[in-house]
Design a protein that fits this description.
single chain; mainly alpha
Length: 398
């Protein structure tokens, strides 16, 4: 075991945890005041669900066993997880690995809230998260990081393109489509810019732990992932700035942070596998894709993804996953990408993304449909009209 590596993984775990309250503030700054408490609650409850379910069974299902689709129950309640030794060939104990990985389902579930705040029954959402972590997140994490199906295919996902962003974005979209459009649907508008700035800043700050921590050591790969995270987010912000100026001659603070967030999402699957120049290119490309996806495409298709959970994380994750197949180098990832003249990795990445979308989409629909037989998925019209803060939570921001 290496003390510096252990210290870095512990710090990185705390940084990823910090992303959840950061996302709560970021989402809350966009939400109508009458449903701001509802937004904060739907995001923050992921800490409770994630912390408990991951400890009880989530980690075991994701990282024990040798199945192609899901693990087993050997490490339930972290019973067999050592706090001083590694069974995974790492320089940090299994306990530190379990802790770090346990932060990821929290932020993943929190992202899903962005598609449904203000109209989904909180009790139904809580049930959904519990079941979703067990039946969707844990199997997907096993398939990608637990030597399961997608790993055996050769798919690359350094810190969560498939596992975190595509899964949460697709789930948010499916739930939004099942719930239907808001009765008072309007253009996404910033209601509290300081909250958006603070929340977006915490997300960006936490993302350094999210990506660089995925090296699971204080080494050169962590440094590369840290640099790539910064470069991709910055270039994406610049590209978004240019797009907004071209389209409307306005530069919105909320838009700048949304652009940076798109860059952070896209670099996540590639952070330790590409060079900084490629990270810059990925930031520009994803910014353009997400900008048009959250404006023209969303408007044209008419779906109600309240806070663009699918628009930023789903589209951004898909673009990032594909570009990982383009820009990954053999020296850094062990697999040559298109930039080195090999098309194979692009095909593998595309297939992995399609399998992720199909699995997550179908599972989300089935889970939500079953829950609807027990608890209504959507609140009543009158309740939605006055806002969910008082009726669902008994408190307001006023």
């Amino acid at each position: 075991m290496h003390a510096a590596d252990i210290a870095w993984v512990l710090v990185a775990s705390a940084l990823v945890w910090l992303m959840v309250p950061g996302l709560a503030l970021f989402y809350g700054g966009f939400t109508q005041p009458k449903s701001t408490v509802n937004t904060l609650a739907m995001v923050l409850v992921s800490i409770a669900v994630g912390g408990v379910v991951w400890f009880v069974v989530g980690y075991s299902l994701a990282f024990s066993g040798t199945g192609s689709l899901i693990g087993g129950f050997k490490d339930a309640f972290l019973h067999n997880v050592s706090m001083v030794e590694s069974t995974r060939g790492l320089t940090v104990p299994d306990g530190a690995f379990a802790l770090f990985q346990g932060m990821f389902p929290m932020i993943t579930m929190a992202i899903i809230a962005g598609g449904v705040v203000g109209r989904m029954n909180f009790k139904a959402f809580l049930l959904f998260l519990i079941i979703w972590l067990v039946l969707v997140y844990a199997p997907l994490a096993h398939m990608v990081w637990g030597d399961g199906l997608l790993a055996k295919m050769g798919a690359l996902d350094f810190a969560g393109g498939d596992v975190v962003h595509i899964s949460s974005g697709v789930s948010a979209l499916v739930l939004a489509l099942m719930l239907g459009r808001r009765r008072e649907m309007g253009e996404l508008t910033a209601h509290n810019v300081p909250a958006i700035v603070i929340g977006g800043g915490l997300l960006w700050f936490g993302w350094f732990g999210f990506n660089a921590g995925s090296a699971l050591a204080a080494n050169g790969q962590a440094i590369l992932a840290f640099i790539n995270t910064s470069v991709a987010a910055s270039t994406a912000m610049v590209a978004w700035l240019g797009l907004e100026m071209y389209q409307s001659n306005n530069v919105k603070v909320s838009g700048l942070l949304s652009g940076a967030l798109a860059g952070l999402v896209a670099i996540t699957p590639a952070a330790g596998y590409v060079n900084p120049g490629s990270a810059a290119a990925m930031g520009v490309i994803v910014s353009v894709a997400v900008f048009f996806g959250t404006t023209f495409v969303k408007t044209r298709l008419g779906y109600d993804d309240t806070l663009d959970a699918f628009g930023i994380h789903g589209i951004g994750g898909i673009v990032g996953g594909l570009l990982t197949g383009v820009f990954a180098t053999k020296q850094l990832s062990g697999s040559a990408g298109l930039i080195e003249g090999d098309w194979h990795l692009v095909g593998v990445q595309f297939l992995a993304i399609m399998l992720t979308v199909a699995f997550v989409g179908a599972a989300t629909y089935v889970i939500a449909k079953l829950i609807s037989f027990v608890v209504p998925l959507r609140v009543a019209q009158a309740e939605e009209h006055v806002g969910l803060d008082l009726s669902q939570h008994g408190e307001t921001i006023f």
